[in-house]
């Protein structure tokens, strides 16, 4: 049994996702398919990367993680295969892999092209999966991919005693997740006090472990299960209550 | 192969549900995961219970039903395991199990705690599933859970010749489902006529077997496949047409 | 392992779809279930047919495609079984099969009825699947179904040098898909130029292979992966930008 996850912007009511699943099961019938999300914003490779980055490690080693976001961006598209940390990652060559891993210059990334004799998108992805399923190693699959597309992740700006951070995701509960990892925060905090300013007159200055560490309806910061700094309201919708949206900028000052 | 169902409020576009699935497959790879729903209203253990109560019996005996709704309500959360009717139920200790089954005082409910050395929510749930998968019986798993949290389901008020009922769910078709089971209805009806008053000037006084027993666009009552009294409009949206919402109160009078 | 796809209007937050899945796994535990969509518009057998028609061939031969759309339309409903092109199709007798395949008059279509001793909808479908799973051939299952319900697909009107076409689906990206196949288009085009008029003052007169063949924000026509003519905007939402909705009519003139 091979586990295959799907992270796509294809939508839940769309025959494309079904066609992709069918093509995979036709060539690799011993697969179990798990949707990470098919509801990524259209073309939003950053959101897709974020979703996968926070979940891929929970899957069994050997899992194949397929990302199909903005997959139709050029006449001929290279579908990349990267073997890393005992997982496989299959994604179009539009920068997703460079967002997922900072340093892949020296990895032996492989590719197949679709839009030519190799067939459609679904078949190309399915073909790669089938080759992995029968035990081929990554370097035996497809062609070596040089000069893959690189994108820069939206990074927080660190200057002196402050971090200028951005909300990168609002979840179903309205929690606002920032592009600040626990590591980055602690490197800059050095156990000093801090003030997270999310609007001209409002700030938060404590980090808790759980939503329930404060009274119902109060706001807090915490590091979420993926290690990112999150602004939340206990039993409430932080996005609505505090006026935070995807893209909102907040200032963290250590003093 | 172990079947595992998931009923959560985590949302379809959220890495938490993927992380939970990955953790389960890592510790119990011979599992097949089936989503009952990941779109339960945030924190709404009543809706989650209703959804699971109406579907769990259709699954093969031995199925493990996981409920993860409002799972982060306290500093340390006990994850409960109940073996009942040849199924397994895993849920946080926030009242869900007491809503699902009226009498579990004498059941040997077990628990693991998360928020400490036992690891995160996903790992704790996955660990329980893995132990069940390798054949452990419920009493051999975790620690005996005394004093589990109890919640009272919103019950209809029966007085004299009437039942005061509440709409507990509106489905995708706009059907309004009441907190009245067929048993309760028949105990009070005793073959008398009835009038279900859903607005000051409007009532329904017949129960049919199928939507199609009446003309298109007409309203009716029926008992749905789960045995609950439902207000519907044949080929129409009862919620919109009749002005019924979750929480709306209707009066049933027998005469 | 038997692959079973589901195309339903039951909705993602509904115990009915879970009950159906549970019933199938109870009677045919060696199944893997794949959702094509549970978000088909209520009662919309045309949308459901379109979704399945464009994806069923990608699945492994032997896959059982279950369609449960508008399944409660009569007092007693016949659930049909059609074996065709090495696939199995299970659907209520409300015209879906006749939309999916133009000529099935001479096929040996079988049925079970629900709403009587055969049990509920879920059980009837699960029973058929179980019989297929243990190797029964279609003619050995159920009863021969004569006079199945037929529906006519909305066809484009071809007259002289023009085709009057209709938008049959808007996908998540806002692409508008017409009821015009590549075959029909080419039969009428005969390599002549064409003009696709989508509003009184606007038309498109070129077909491209990929969205990216034109500048960002420009409109184009192409044949999608399912072979249907599609109106799209490169990296944009054609439905919103061009004012196209499901049911909109466009004129294609060859000259």
Summarize the structure.
Chain A has 255 residues and is an alpha+beta fold. Chain A has helices spanning 15-27, 45-53, 96-100, 121-133, 182-189, 238-242; strands at 2-8, 31-37, 64-68, 77-84, 87-92, 110-114, 143-144, 157-159, 162-170, 176-181, 194-199, 202-204, 219-223, 228-233, 249-254. The mean pLDDT of chain A is 91.
List keywords for this structure.
homotrimer; 255 residues; alpha+beta; 8-stranded antiparallel sheet; 7-stranded mixed sheet; 15 strands; 21% helix; 33% strand; elongated
Describe it for me?
3 copies of one chain form a homotrimer. The first copy, chain A, is of the alpha+beta class. In chain A, the strands form 2 sheets. In chain A, strands 8, 9, 10, 11, 12, 13, 14 and 15 form an 8-stranded antiparallel sheet that branches. In chain A, strands 2-1-3-5-4-6-7 form a 7-stranded mixed sheet, sandwiched between helices. Helix content of chain A is 21%, strand content 33%. In chain A, helix 1 runs parallel beside helix 4. Chains in contact: A-B, A-C, B-C. Chains A and C meet through helix 1 of A and strand 2 and helix 2 of C.
Task: Give me the number of helical elements of chain A.
Answer: 6
Largest sheet of chain A: 8 strands, antiparallel
Helix content of chain A: 10-25%
Radius of gyration of chain A: 20 Å
Percent strand of chain A equals 25-35%
Question: Which pair has the most extensive contact?
Answer: A-B, 34 and 30 residues
Q: Provide the succession of SSEs of chain A.
A: EHEHEEEHEHEEEEHEEEEHE
> What integer is the average pLDDT of chain A?
91
Number of strands of chain A: 15
What is the general shape of chain A? elongated
Task: Compute the separation of the termini of chain A in Å.
Answer: 53 Å
Poorly predicted residue ranges of chain A:
none
Quaternary class: homotrimer
């Amino acid at each position: 049994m091979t586990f295959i996850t799907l992270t796509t912007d294809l939508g839940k009511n769309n025959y494309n996702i079904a066609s992709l699943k069918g093509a995979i099961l036709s060539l690799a019938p011993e697969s179990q398919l798990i949707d990470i999300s098919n509801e990524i914003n259209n073309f939003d490779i950053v959101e897709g990367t974020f979703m996968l980055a926070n979940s891929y490690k929970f899957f069994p080693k050997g899992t194949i993680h397929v990302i199909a976001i903005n997959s139709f961006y050029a006449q001929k598209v290279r579908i990349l295969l990267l073997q890393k940390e005992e997982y496989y990652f299959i994604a179009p060559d539009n920068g997703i892999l460079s967002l997922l891993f900072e340093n892949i210059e020296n990895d032996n990334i492989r590719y197949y092209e679709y839009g030519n004799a190799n067939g459609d998108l679904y078949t190309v992805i399915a073909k790669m999966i089938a080759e992995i399923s029968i035990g081929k190693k990554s370097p035996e699959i497809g062609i070596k991919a040089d000069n893959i597309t690189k994108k820069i992740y939206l990074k927080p700006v660190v200057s002196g005693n402050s971090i200028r951070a951005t909300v990168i995701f609002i979840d179903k509960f309205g929690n606002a997740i920032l592009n600040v990892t626990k590591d980055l925060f602690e490197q800059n905090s050095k156990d000093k006090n801090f003030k997270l300013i999310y609007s001209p007159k409002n700030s938060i200055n404590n980090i808790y472990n759980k939503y329930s560490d404060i009274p119902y309806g109060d706001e807090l910061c915490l590091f979420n299960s993926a290690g990112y700094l999150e602004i939340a309201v206990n039993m409430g919708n932080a996005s609505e209550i505090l006026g935070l949206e995807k893209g909102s900028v907040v200032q963290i000052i250590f003093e």
